[in-house]
Amino acid sequence: MRLNSLRMLFDFGLVILIWMVQLVVYPSFAAFQTENLIEWHSLYMVRITYIVLPLMLGQAFFATIQGYRNRTVYTMGSLLLVVLLWMLTFTIFVPLHNEIASGDFSSETLNELVSKNWIRTTLWSFLFVWTLLHTPKSEV
User: Fold this and answer.
1) What share of the chain is helix, strand, coil (3-state, %, to 5)?
2) CA separation (Å) from 13 to 38, 49, 88, 97, 111?
3) Cβ(3)–Cβ(134) under 8 Å?
4) What is the pLDDT of residues 77-99, one digit of tens each?
5) Distance between CA 97 and CA 89 in Å, rounded?
């Protein structure tokens, strides 16, 4: 399997995951009572990490390799987007999840999680389409 195809698989995995989180998982948090959400959230965070961490690491790895091997607008721009997505994840979403985990959250926190996650949803969707457009048809 070629490098572009592997990259596309990781981008596709993340775009499917982020849409599921955006449309199903995060909105469902509002349906829980506080104690139940704290309990469920701790399970969710462990379980989702097994899915999201390998995908994000794989995406970062392949974007870095592509950028190193071939400096184009696509490879450098997509690498920049991957770095931005990591920064957003750790500066905005990890703190929001920490608020939920600690029980120090409100309905505004849950709404903020959903509304701000549209940024990542849009960026990961764009990144997947951009990767798809830059993957030779013979590799798709």
Assistant:
1) 90, 0, 10
2) 27, 14, 18, 22, 25
3) no
4) 999 999 999 999 999 999 999 99
5) 10
Q: First vs last Cα of the chain: how many Å apart?
A: 10
Report residue 31 as tokens: 């349906």
From start to end of the chain, where are the E strands?
Answer: none
Backbone angles phi, psi at 136, to 5 degrees: -55, 140
How many angstroms separate the CA atoms of 43 and 116, rounded? 22
Single pTM value for the model: 0.93
H/E stretch holding 75 reads helix 73-88
User: Alpha-carbon distance 51 to 71, whole Å?
Assistant: 29
Question: Which CA distances in Å does 100 have to 14, 17, 28, 41, 52?
Answer: 23, 20, 13, 7, 19
Q: Which residue has the tokens 């509304």?
A: 115
